[in-house]
Amino acid sequence: MTTLFPETPEFLGALYHPSRVEADVLDLEIEGTLPAAIRGAFYQVSPDPQYPPMLGQDIYFNGDGMVSAFFFEDSKVSLRRRYVKTARLLAQRREGRSLNGVYRNVHTNDPLAATNNTTANTTVLKYNGVLLALKEDALPYAMDPDTLETLGVYDWNGQISSATFTAHPKVDPATGNLLAFSYEAKGDGSPDMAYFEIAPDGQLLHEIWFQAPYAGMVHDFAVTENHVVFPIIPLTVDVERMKRGGPHFQWQPDLPQLFAVLPRKGNAADVRWFKGPANAFQGHTLNAFEENGRIHVDMPITGGNVFYFFPQEDGFVPSPETLSSSLHRWTFDLSSPNDQVEPHALNDYQCEFPRVDDRYIGRPYEHGFVLAFDPTRPYRPENGPIPFQFFNLLTHFNLRTGASDSWFAGDSECFQEPIFVPRSADAAEGDGYVIALLNHIADYASELVVLDANDMAAGPVARVKIPLRMRMSLHGSWAPAE
After folding, report:
1. Global confidence as pTM
2. Domain limits of the chain?
């Protein structure tokens, strides 16, 4: 390959320079003591472009899906990394170059590009015997959960007919059912949405199709025992703009934060729409639950457009230092005719990539795990400007008491999304371990850290050394040993 990756923020530095390494590394070095109770696999995926962008520049989210699997067994850890062999990636390999243009805009692709435009790069989840590599613009790809061999597009034996599928499905802890949805479900720019409930054996149990007021990004959703809640981010889609070579999404600061609330066993006529304050970004959900006839949804909210690569129509993007985010609670009262909702803050610090003890998804809970940013902590100027998605704290937050317990790793370190592993199957909520990738910016290195959730400030009980640099990832999941 003679073409170099461009020197832009999306491709420079320890966090974002492409790795492009597929590998098998057995029995990784471990500093400290890895708890024997941790048995299973930590899967995660990052956008990691195989080739430099066709147009000379690109955004981070457009990289090919690189899946990493950390296998924990007998107090040892091994690593396996493989690209998801999507139709898009195989077409690029055939031609020896990138064939894809503007993010999620097939009108800008090379004629030799694959029809299926997905990179399958947003999250990975083991379910019903396969590892699903998901991105919200298409159906997922299935992989072998042990070898990471790509098996092909996965549509549940033809039961899922939508064009797209969420990258943030949830597993109901009571039934084991997979809860999922689609937006732009009938193709680019369509306002159609669909909700699916799938049994552990792969049988589609229930689906609901409905339409949103407009086509907009719906990155994540929240579930309770009886309802699902869809936050529609004010990033709207215009196919005519795409045909002119423009972006898939455009920020609309005049639009409210919009929520669809739907009974899990209902139909399209049961959808309730609620509106929140305009010009705010609601991305990932921590958890949700029902209480006294009301639905509570907890999620970080940012006051403005986080995604600078999707500016508003006049090109304006807010300066990063003007954006503040914190964890908020939305409360939806289905007995009230009022469709206006106002969130209230649960903490006062910037945080994102929230995770919960998965045994309490959709149920009353009190423990959350987030990446946080404290601007008062030291940062080495030699590292360059603080990059996009920089979080210098790994935090356990108690929603009942408001207490936070955090670990700060140093002035050249930042974290990738954490996961929580219970100490045992019957351990109390939040009693277990937090696992996350730690980036060492100055050294262009990465390691996997394991912390006791009951004493985050003490730092890792074990550090798993990784003999290669891990590009900044998006999401992942924990699959306990069977």
Report:
1. 0.97
2. 175-320+331-342
